[in-house]
Amino acid sequence: MGFLNPLLLYGLPLAAVPVVIHLLNRRRFQRRPWAAMEFLRKALQKNRKRIRVEQLLLLLLRTLLVVLLILAVSRPQLGGGGLVGVRTHHVLVLDDSASMQQRAGVKTVQTLAADRIEALAKTLAEAREGDLVTLLRSGRPGRPELAAVRAGPGLEERLRQALQRVDPGDSRSEWAAVFRELAQRIAATPEAGRTEIVVLTDLRRVDWLGDDGRARPELEAAVRALDPKSVQVRIEPLAPDEHENLAITALRMDERVAVVGVPLTFVAEVTNLGSGQSAAGEVVLEIDGKTRVARPLAALPAGGRAALSFTPTFASQGPHGLLASLAPDRYAPDDRRALALDVRERTRSLLVDGDPRDGAEQSETYFLAAALESGGGSGPGVAVKVIAEHQLAAEDLAGFDTVCLCNVPAPARAVVEKLEAFVAKGGGLLVFLGNQVEPARYAEALWREGRGLLPARPIAVAGDLDRPERVFLAAREHPVLATAAGVLETLFARAVAVGRHLTLELDRAAPPQVLLRLGGPEGAPLLVARSREDAGTVLLCASTADAAWTNWPATPAYLVTWTEAQRFAAPRQDLGADNLLPSSTWRLALDPARHRLDVLVRALREDAAERTLTAGPDGALAVPMGEVRGYGLFEAVATPHAGEPERRVFSRNAHLGESDLRPLRGDGLLSAYGAEFQQRVTVAGRGSPALQAGQSELWRLLVAGILIGLLLETFLAWRFGRRHG
């Protein structure tokens, strides 16, 4: 048996007060004989034995009442293993989701939860010896840290050691799954007559309610499966009421491909997820752990967003990493976001020449190849491969970013299917028309009534070489033209002239975007484009790639237009494989014939520990991000049997869903769920004791005994006094 207020037991000597009073009342007085009292004395002597028994009965009753009063205020509790007590299974559920890393004062909420568990362990060890105690984490409820251990000496130390093994979590708590696992654990512990579940959590709105603010049906069903007669759930919310949080919610590359020597635009998106206006600050972008660039960040209202652009240029190809960061706030994991990328030396383009001639300068692809290889003066340019039209069927397109058909006759069906597969995988297709193009055959092979590759249907040759037309910018904001729209507009209006072209019939069902027109805003389309989210981009030029029908290749406008068109049409570089969330898995494929199977993995920070992981016999290495600690940039170093080590960089970023720190009040939780939920669940107020239910306390019985004793003492005193009177 234990006591919640053991110090009050020092009042037990007060039980002697009735005895002292009784003894004082028996002190001797001076005796005076009195004849009238002689008869009364003889009567009392006759009933003396009965009177003494009555007095001792009243004395015992009054002493017992004092003892019961002292015990009642000391709040005795029967131990779970006692003969008359009910053994209780105390299941302590620690919310280990990433949001528990938010600070509440100088400590994190998870630290507060650990402190509360240690305090609860002390209470259980003293007051509930013999009960069962289980400690589990919400992130892995099927693998408890402690499973049904006996409460008693040593419990505090065991729980403390278990808590030291609990690392900060970085995933979201699925409470429906937690309560389903709890139901199975309760059923597997028949030696406990009742179960008390104590959930220590930040009680976030997004975890316990749906997006519509209503109850989660799966969670409500899981709680209803618990027996309210033997199971009680107590939720202890520990998060602060304030939920200020400024987060970097995205770090992305706006360019389609990262290439050496080309300025690349990266955007860091910052969102105020708090309830009030944020303070002004700055966003710092760290490049490869060396260069740091800062951009000022204005104060944001609640829910406000800001996008800050950075334009670094990489001087070397290979793996690189960027890290955007804010000043630390209440929730640190989303104050930084990393991006790993592989910078390529050049993009690759396949040029298919449909009208090769004797001299190189006379070929259909000469000017286009020169323009792409130069890079437009803003980089190393494009790696170009030129083939004849008859070689296209045997060419492997997998290594190219774009394919350019330059005045190519209508390709065979097998080649068309090859090009369709290339575009479906994200590749870019640039088509130049010319005198080798038969409109009817092109329409049949590549237009196919709008279902084919071309964004428009070639109709017929038009125009006059002696009366060329000027070019009009029809879409200044399009990525192909936006970079130098002002210069291009001047060049097209004054220098570029198009003598011949093929008229185009635009697809009415899915109209393409017209970038350039001839003569004016209502003129014939010269350059049209169609991009699909699930596939690549196709650009169709109604004139030639060479100077046969236009002087465009002889002007700077040609260089700028097709360099930008190549960048726009190139498939977007897939960065998802190396930029991961805690629930993802990073994969590396090694060639066992070239590489050792041991790979060194470490974080790109000074205090990072190294780990050596071993790939499978086939060279496949899978690294679950749940087994990696921390956020930011990491590198994996593979060692060839001969040669220098090879690096790969990947990033691990926090779940954005954990950045929503809005707390849910206890009455809001209970009101969202039904009456059956409320029968099983209570929500503690701030500062309330952690141990409430299932204590087998006796104070209620003691109070009832005191009331009954007072009534009995009053009745007996009245009865005995009346008899004596």
Q: What does this protein structure show overall?
A:
It contains 16 helices and 34 strands. By secondary structure, it is of the alpha/beta class. The chain folds into five domains: 2-78 and 700-724, no CATH class; 88-242 and 665-687, von Willebrand factor, type A domain (Rossmann fold), CATH 3.40.50.410; 247-339, Immunoglobulin-like; 347-569, Rossmann fold (3-Layer(aba) Sandwich), CATH 3.40.50; 576-652, Immunoglobulin-like, CATH 2.60.40. The strands form nine sheets. An eight-stranded mixed sheet has the order 18-17-19-20-26-25-24-22, with helices on both faces. A six-stranded mixed sheet has the order 7-6-3-8-9-34. Strands 27-33-32-29-30 form a five-stranded mixed sheet, with no helix packed on it. Strand 24 (513-518) and strand 25 form a beta hairpin. Helix 3 (109-127) runs antiparallel to helix 4 (155-164) and helix 12 (485-494) packs across helix 13.
By CATH, the superfamily of the largest domain comes out as Class I glutamine amidotransferase (GATase) domain
The chain-level structural class is: alpha/beta
Distance between the termini: 46 Å
Cα Rg:
42 Å
The third-level CATH topology of the largest domain is Rossmann fold
Beta-strand level of the residues, as a percent range?
25-35%
Number of domains: 5
The appropriate CATH architecture of the largest domain is 3-Layer(aba) Sandwich
State the helicity in percent bands. Answer: 25-40%
Strand elements, count: 34
Major β-sheet annotation: 8 strands, mixed
Question: Would you tell me the overall average pLDDT?
Answer: 87
Low-confidence stretches: 80-84, 686-695
What's the shape?
elongated
